[in-house]
Amino acid sequence: MPTLAPAAVSQSDATAMPHLPVTTEANLQAKPVAEHLLPTIEQVQAAWEQFAEQYRQQEKPLIVSMLTWRPITFTYPTITHALRNNATDDEAFKQVRNQLLSFLRQQLNCPQLVLETIEVPVEEANAVKKMYTNTDRFNFLAEQFPLLNNLRNMLGLDIE
């Protein structure tokens, strides 16, 4: 049994049956389909910063610190945020997670976004190498400026 498709009617028949679509010359032309563009990392980062700015204006530094201490990574559809492995950041993130995800989905017009967190140990998050001796200081500078070792060798200098 053949299926019947809804028929388009002419302009004169439309007055008799207003619930049927009217066929006109403009309706017959192909309409361009708008492509849904995926968000870029820059767009995601900008929306993330907008969200953090809202909490900065509300004077909630703990949440702002938790949101901004490390940059996010983005591989569609997953946004990954690093959290310090402590109870304070964990609780702060739980407070804003759903609001943040809703905000990002709305701002980026992308309901498929997913938010993941990774925990970074506190020791790694706060790792600052202490420089107590002249050798430690020289090695630190030599890492930043590799030519410093060449200069020390050319001049025959010792590190004391």
Keywords:
three-stranded mixed β-sheet, 11% strand, mainly alpha, 160 residues, GMP Synthetase, Chain A, domain 3
Structure description:
This protein is mostly helical. α5 links the parallel β2 and β3. α3 packs antiparallel against α4 and α3 crosses α5. The N terminus is likely disordered.
Beta-strand percent range: 5-15%
In helices, the fraction of residues equals 40-55%
- Give the CA-based shape: elongated
CATH first level of the largest domain: which class? Alpha Beta
Q: Order of helices and strands, N to C?
A: HHHHEEHEHHH
Helical segment tally? Answer: 8
Mean pLDDT: 75
End-to-end gap: 97 Å
> Which sheet architecture does the biggest sheet show?
3 strands, mixed
- Largest beta sheet: what is the strand line-up? 1-2-3
In CATH, the architecture of the largest domain is: 2-Layer Sandwich
Can you lay out the helices and strands and say which pair or pack?
Layout lengths: L10 H4 L10 H4 L12 H17 L3 H8 L4 E3 L2 E7 L2 H22 L5 E7 L1 H4 L8 H11 L2 H9 L5
Parallel strand pairs: 2-3
Antiparallel strand pairs: 1-2
Helix pairs in contact: 3-4, 3-5, 4-5
Summarize the structure.
This protein has 160 residues and is mainly alpha-helical.
